[in-house]
Amino acid sequence: MRLDKFLKVSRLIKRRTVAKDVSDQGRVLLNNREAKPSATVKIGDELDIQFGQRTLTVRIERLTESTRKEDVAGMYTILKEEVRKREDDPFGL
Fold first, then answer.
1. Is pLDDT at 89 greater than 80 in this prediction?
2. Other Cβ atoms within 10 Å of 19 Cβ, number
């Protein structure tokens, strides 16, 4: 399955065009390598996705072409979630 489609179907990113843009900007790593939107993902792969100040690391558990909202939980496992502190924030928020 293509990376941009997985991000959309798993609801990690709401729209496929946004998933494509995020990948094109180099904000998605597939197994610690920068990934293009057309990269093929498979079960067991790890994704690092940067959302602004937050980085989410997930492992792909299941691939399906389409899914309902209730079934999304089994598609990936969150391994780590980090929030970077802004350097210009004196309070560390």
1. no
2. 24
Give the pLDDT confidence of 43-70 residue by residue, as tens digits.
999 999 999 889 999 999 989 887 777 7
Measured CA to CA, the distance from residue 8 to residue 55 in angstroms comes to 17
Contact 58, 78 (CB under 8 A): yes
> Residue 35 CB: number of other CB atoms within 10 A?
20
Q: Report pTM.
A: 0.83
Q: Which pair of structure tokens corresponds to residue 85? A: 């502190």
Number of domain units in the chain:
1
Contact 10, 76 (CB under 8 A): yes
* Pair of tokens at residue 77: 């496992």
CATH number of the domain within which 68 lies: 3.10.290.10
Question: Is 92 within a domain?
Answer: no
Question: In the chain, at which residue ranges do the beta strands (DSSP E only) sit?
Answer: 28-30, 33-34, 46-51, 54-60, 76-83
